[in-house]
Design goal:
Layout (H helix, E strand, L loop, with lengths): L3 E10 L2 E5 L5 E5 L2 H6 L6 E11 L2 E7 L2 H11 L6 H11 L1 H10 L2 H4 L7 H11 L17 H12 L4 H15 L4 H15 L1
Antiparallel strand pairs: 1-2, 1-4, 2-3, 4-5
Helix pairs in contact: 2-3, 2-4, 3-4, 4-6, 7-8, 7-9, 8-9
């Protein structure tokens, strides 16, 4: 089993990165969006914790820069109907701490913001995983967005932005400027989203 890969970041495209080890072996890893954003520029040294998924149709390596996200990904794979793609989408859209908080709290609405997760799947996840995530420690502020931030993300989603993009923009505004009124968060998040286009 491959538990970590350390090497030079060769490329990052879509949801994949390529790391080349000092031995000259290159590994392609699927990573959550948050990891992709936190990685340094190409050519820098990187170490990612990994999960190797072996299936009939092939092997795939998934990379994480935080132990909590890797653990959440592994536990998600234990739920029926959740494969690696859907588990990666959950960690990408919500982040590890929010997935844990949503499962613990039975927050079906938060889970349903992830593409590919409907109410039935979210209900099944909560039922099957609630006890399995109870032991995971969450960072205080990261576990849950404030009410204004939740409202801002919902408003941006209603305007047609993807849940992951809306969540990232609001988180960036909150981390830079702190939490404010929903209207102000929406305005500043919209500025960030339009700058990226």
């Amino acid at each position: 089993m491959i538990s970590a890969v350390r090497g030079t970041l060769i490329s990052k495209t879509g949801d994949r990165v390529v790391l080349e080890t000092t031995g000259g072996v290159s590994y392609e890893l699927a990573v959550p969006l948050g990891v992709l954003e936190r990685l340094p520029v190409e050519g820098r040294a990187v170490e990612l914790k990994t999960v190797l998924v072996v299936r009939e149709d092939g092997w795939a390596l998934y990379g994480f820069d935080q132990e909590l996200e890797r653990t959440v990904f592994q536990r998600l794979l234990g739920a029926s109907g959740i494969g690696p793609r859907l588990a990666l989408a959950l960690v990408s859209t919500l982040g590890g701490p929010r997935v844990v908080a949503a499962v613990r709290d039975g927050d079906i609405a938060a889970l349903c913001t992830v593409p590919g997760i409907g109410k039935k799947t979210a209900d099944r996840m909560v039922l099957e995983l609630k006890d399995r995530v109870r032991d995971l420690a969450l960072p205080g502020a990261a576990a849950r967005r404030s009410v204004p931030a939740e409202q801002a993300v919902q408003a941006l989603t209603n305007l047609g932005y993807g849940p992951a993009d809306a969540d990232r923009a609001v988180r960036a505004v909150v981390s830079q400027d702190g939490t404010g009124e929903p209207a102000e968060l929406i305005r500043r998040a919209l500025q960030r989203l339009t700058e990226r286009r």
